[in-house]
Amino acid sequence: MNAPGLLPIVTLLFGLVAGVAAVWAMAERARAGRAELKLGLLEGQANASGEILRAQAALSANAVADELVKRAGESFASQNSVAQAKLEAQLKPVADSLEKFQAQVTAAEKARAEQTGGLKAQIEQLLLASTATQDEARKLSAALRRGAGVQGRWGEQMLRNVLEMAGLKAKVDFEEQFHVDTGSGALRPDVIVKLPGGGVFVIDAKCSLNAFLEAQDALDEAVREAGYLRHAQSVRAHMHSLAAKAYWDQFEASPDFVVMFVPGDAFLAAAAERLPDLYTQGMERRVILVTPSSLFALCKAVAYGWRVEEQSLNAKQIAVLGRDLYKRLSVMGDHVTRVGRALGSAVDHYNAFVGSLESQVLTQARKFEDLKVDKQSAPLKELKGVEPAIRPLVKLSSEGSPPALTLVETAPTSAP
C-alpha cells in the first residue's frame, strides 16, 4: 500500500480519535457536572441538616434555658426569702430600738413643747413683772425727787423692813425715833438696836439721793459723772456729821461705833467708786457704812445672840423645874408605896376571909350534896385565895443625879 492511500485512513483515524476524545471529554464533563450536582445536593442537604440540627439545638437550648431560668428564679426567690427572713431577724432589734427611740423622741418633743409653753408663760409673767417693777421704780424715783422728807421716810421704812426680816421685833429688840438728851441738845437717832447683856448700838438712815437721781437722768457722760461725784461727796459729808454726834458716848453699854444705813447697794457702790477711801474714812471715824444686805447679816448676828441668851435663861428655868419635879416625884413615890401596902393588906384580909369561908362554912354546905338533897342549883365551887403581886417602887436616891423610877415586878403564883 502506498502512502497516498494511507493518508485518508490516517486522517479518518485522527478524526475518529478526535471524536472519541470529544465524546470522552463530553462524558467527563457530564460526569463532572453530575458530580458537582451531587456535591451541591450533598452540601445543600448538609446545610439543611445543619440548619435543622441548629434549629433543634436552639429549641433545646431555649427549653433548657427556660428551665434553667425557671429554676434559677425559684432558687433566687427561695434565697431571697431566706435572706429577707435573716435580714428581718437581724434588723428586728434595730427596729425595736428605733421604735423606742421614736417614742422617746415623741415624749421628749411633747415635754419640750409643754416646757416651751410653760417657759413662754413664765417669760410673759416675767415681762409683766418687769414692766410693773419699772413702773414702780419710776413712781419711786418720782416720789424720791419730792424732797429730803420723802427720802428720809423711805429710808426709815427700808431699815424697818430689814430689821424685821432679820428676826428683830419692833419695841422689843429695837426702838425707833429714840430721844437722847445731851449737854449740847437733844439727839434723835433713827433706830437703836438692843444687844444681849443690856448694850445698844445706833443706826442712822438719813442719806440724800438727789445728786444720784440727777446723775441717773443725765444724758451727757460728763454731767452724769459730775452728779455721781456730788453724790459721793454728800455721802461723805453725812458720814462726817454722823461721826461728830458720837452716839456711842450717849449710852452706858454701847460699842464704839454708829451704823450709817444707805438704803440701796447701788447708792453706796456709786459713792465708793468715786471715793475709794470712803470705807476707810468711815472706820477711822467709827462709822460703819452698810446697805440692806450687810445690815441684814449684822442684825442676824444680833438675833442669834438674843436666842443664845434666851436659851441660857431657859436652861436656868429648866434646872429649877427639874428640881421641883424631882421633889414632887419623890412625894408621889411615897404615896404609891403606901397605896401598894394598902393593897397588900387588903389581899391578905381577902385571903383570910376566903380561908375562913371555905373551912368553916362551905364544908358544912357541901354535906347537903352527900345527903342527896335536891338543892336545884349548881354545886359549890372551891374558893381560892388571891396571890399578892404588888410591884413596889425603889426609893429615890438623894445622892448624885436623881435616878429614874424603877419598878420591881414580883411574878404572880397561883394559890393552891
The count of β-strands is 7
How many independent structural domains?
3
Number of helices: 8
SSE topology string: HHEEEEEHHEHHEHH
Question: What strand line-up does the widest sheet have?
Answer: 1-4-5-6-7
- Terminus-to-terminus distance: 205 Å
Which structural category do the helix and sheet elements fall into? alpha/beta
Nearest-angstrom radius of gyration?
A: 67 Å
User: Strand portion, in percent?
Assistant: 5-15%
Q: Could you list the spans in which at least 5 consecutive residues all have pLDDT below 50? A: 398-416
Described by strand count, sense and barrel closure, the largest sheet is: 5 strands, mixed
Q: Which whole number gives the mean pLDDT? A: 76
- Helicity, in percent? 55-70%
**Spatial shape:** flat
Short account of what is shown:
The chain is of the alpha/beta class.
What is the topological layout?
Elements: H1 3-144, H2 148-165, E1 174-176, E2 180-182, E3 185-187, E4 191-194, E5 200-204, H3 210-217, H4 221-245, E6 258-261, H5 265-274, H6 278-284, E7 287-290, H7 292-365, H8 367-370
Parallel strand pairs: 5-6, 6-7
Antiparallel strand pairs: 1-4, 2-3, 4-5
Helix pairs in contact: 2-7, 3-4, 4-5
